[in-house]
Amino acid sequence: MSLKRVLVVDDESSIRSMLRFALETEGLECLEAADITNAYGVISDQLPDMVLLDWMMPGGNGVELLAKLKREEATQSLPVIMLTAKAQEDNIAHGLALGADDYLTKPFSPKELLARMRAVC
Fold first, then answer.
1. How far apart are CA 35 and CA 59, in angstroms?
2. What is the distance between the alpha carbons of residues 10 and 54, in angstroms, rounded to a whole number?
3. pTM reported for the whole predicted model
């Protein structure tokens, strides 16, 4: 995998912890953010190689951040995988149409996520 640094954006600390463990086990650096405002700051300061992005969070939602990242020249090629409980076909189609590179619904397997991350990068 050509990834080195991954940003996990999720308001659930248990999901961030589980992903941190899975990513660090693979030798990746894991950055974390609990909301989109913090996530945008992390992206601006420490451009990650990939973003794992939840849809529903307090203070804004992940698709707003996804749309913003895909509009800006500096981040439009940044790979983003949506990790969300929104499992309806319309939600998946909307996330992918906004530019998500992949879409995985919760609950998910860390092993499957890592395989999808490899496929994207």
1. 7
2. 5
3. 0.95
How many CA atoms within 13 Å lie on the side-chain side of 56? 7
At 3-42, the pLDDT tens digits run: 899 999 999 999 999 999 999 999 999 999 999 999 999 9
Q: Taking a C-beta distance cutoff of 8 angstroms, is the pair 63, 98 a contact?
A: yes
Distance, CA of 15 to CA of 19 (rounded, Å)? 6
User: What totals of helices (H) and strands (E) does the chain contain, helices first?
Assistant: 5, 7
Backbone φ and ψ of 104, nearest 5°: -125, 130
The CATH architecture one would assign to domain 5-120 is 3-Layer(aba) Sandwich (3.40)
Domain definitions of the chain by residue range: 5-120
Q: Which residues sit opposite 102 in a β-bridge?
A: 81
- The three-state secondary structure class of 109 is coil
Residue owning tokens 């949506």: 82
Beta strands in the chain (DSSP E): 5-9, 29-33, 50-53, 56-57, 60-61, 80-84, 102-105
Q: Could you give the CA distance from residue 47 to residue 73 in angstroms, rounded to a whole number? A: 13
